[in-house]
Amino acid sequence: MTTDDDTTLWWARYRAAGPQRVAPASAYPAGMTRLVEPDASAVWLLPALPDNARPDVLDELGLAGVAVDQPNDTARVLAACLRCCWTEPSGPVWPAAPAPYDQVVAVFRAVTGNRDERALHAAAMGAARRLAGAGWVLFDEDARVVRLGPRVASWSAAELSTLRELWRSMPAPEREA
Amino acid sequence: MTAGPELTLDQLAGDAAVERLYRQVFAVLARESGAMISDVELLDVDEAILDAFADAGRDGLTVDQAVAACRPIDPGLIHRRFEVLRDYGAISKVVERPHERFHRAAFAPYVMLLFLRRLAEQGGQAELHQLLTLEHVSVTAPDAGPETGQTTISRLTRIFRHLGNELAILAAGSTAEQLGDHAQLLWGNKGLISQAEEVHTVVLTRWPQLDRECTALRIALAAYGDAVEKAAGRLIEQAGTTRALGLLSVETWLSFARTASEDDLAGVLDTFVFDAPAPWFSPNLLTEAVESGRSAATVRQPPPRPEGSAPPPPDDLRPADDATGLRETAERLLNSGDGDTVAVAAVLDGVGDWLAARRVLADLTAIHHHPDLEYELTWSDGFRVDPERSPAWASEGTFRRTA
């Protein structure tokens, strides 16, 4: 078990640097959820927040959260990632399957309509990088593969059902043979 | 000063000497008899006068010499201050007789002036340190007796009670800004307290019978320490919430920033945790974004236009194109010459009066500027003057076909 100081430090690390990736066997502090990578090579630590301390409380209080550039496009790309990676929407959202980036772009194109191709790619790439920086998706830019990041596991069950609705309403990506 | 009936003449003389000294000392603070100065500049005037006396040597000074010595200052002001200082005995006649013009100055007012200056600059803190050092010296002196120790201890007790009371009252009931103004009482208090404790230790070991007085001093010191803690706590609390950096002097912040170690500097932020700039995406936000993306994806609406074909605009709004008319005019004019070139002066002569000529000139200019007509109007130097004709003078120009 870890001491109080360790727990405090883990929380501070999470708040300062987002979800923490640690070795699977390492000690972990109280109040944190362990998210095991599919191949069990590492574990993400994500705090299990009580309902009244989650980020969406800001919405209820009418306060502004952390600002993000181009919030709408970023949210659309996240939704596209969700549509592509969450292959089993009846199950948990973590760990989802990896999806090719081009597939995500295709879904993004489908939900944004006829936009200039260059602008579309620029918007999608910027949004994907922003999401990767915040831990919402894991984006391997060289392999052009997108996975859902550990932060998606912080969506609650009620929120997941909303997301399932969204999932169903979105156009399906073209699966490769 | 109350003089009891049993006072002897010697005592009265002693009292009078003390009172004279008090009067001299406070002369520099007097505006006039019985009133304090309300203007710091008057202190400068006093200092200038006393400086002049110091420089004057053993002859002393007359009023006019003093005024001359303090030249940049208004003579009237010098005269008035001179009178006030003389009233209080800080300046007196060299020889006490009528019509004596030379004066001498006492040294006590000048010492007082120096003390006032230092008190004004440092709020008395340095003086307190010096006082404590002096007290330490006096109680450690080999010939000091228990009376010395007692007076020392009671003096210190009073000083610290004053300090502690003032600070405690401020900490309890004043605004943070007022507290900040008096924050000098907070600085260096550790040094003050430890100095006082040293004096206390010396006294207690030398004269154990002064135990009761020493206890009073200890209590006063502890009360002062508590008041400092409390006031500092309030200041810090205010500073933490209001970010009112003005609560401390700029120099204090600067010297802290310069001299603090890395740990000290980091300690400032010890209790703060910075949130990572990670945005939160609620499912509703995702849904809304996707929905709005779809609606934005519909075909862009063209701006509203009137139904059906638009009626032609009224005639007077249509741009006039008089190219054919102008071409006819041009051909007619050119034909009056050799068919390709014609001199402007000849054309003007041909139409007679100026009213018609200027119309022709306007036509020529219009033809020249018309983009579709291949004629040009060129002007060369020199002109023809002939009072018999109309126009009486004309520049030499030619109108010709370019293509």
From TrEMBL, chain A:
Q: Which domain of life is it from?
A: Bacteria
This protein's species is Jiangella ureilytica
Give the classification, highest ranks: Bacteria, Bacillati, Actinomycetota, Actinomycetes, Jiangellales
Name assigned to this protein: Uncharacterized protein
From TrEMBL, chain B:
Region annotation (Disordered) maps to: 292-322
Here the segments flagged for biased composition (Pro residues) are 301-314
Q: What is this protein called?
A: DUF2397 family protein
